[in-house]
What we know:
Structural class: mainly beta
Number of strands: 8
Oligomer: single chain
Number of domains: 1
Largest sheet: 8 strands, antiparallel
Amino acid sequence: xxxxxxxSNATINITGSxxxxxxxxxxxxxxxxxxxxxxxxxxxxxxxxxxxxxxxxWECDITFYLNYGAGEVEATLYDLLNNGSFSMVVSPSxxxxxxxxxxxxxxxxxxxxxxxxxxxxxxxxVVSFSATGGNWTRDIVSP
Length: 143
């Protein structure tokens, strides 16, 4: 079976109330889960549980190295929390989308909470980011 090896190097650009901020160099993990919610459509007489596709969903989980200052992780996440909604663009590797590097774009995303301070002696401080809600698209065509 033919296969290929992919070295992950996600690009992460987030836009809150200001300009887009590239936080790719501050992240150590990035996971996107997309799908549709299952709706119960079981009717009388069905011999098993039936499901129908519901609304699409997006979940994006990122672990960032925590740092402070304008345009850095803490300031950006604080802005997203106060702004109410945000957009973000994530690609597996680089910013040029293609069939081998799809670009996922979220609009009207929601950040429920984040931990602005997480310190342990002798450890790098990290913060977990979890975005949910909004509308997402997948693009493989370079502009």
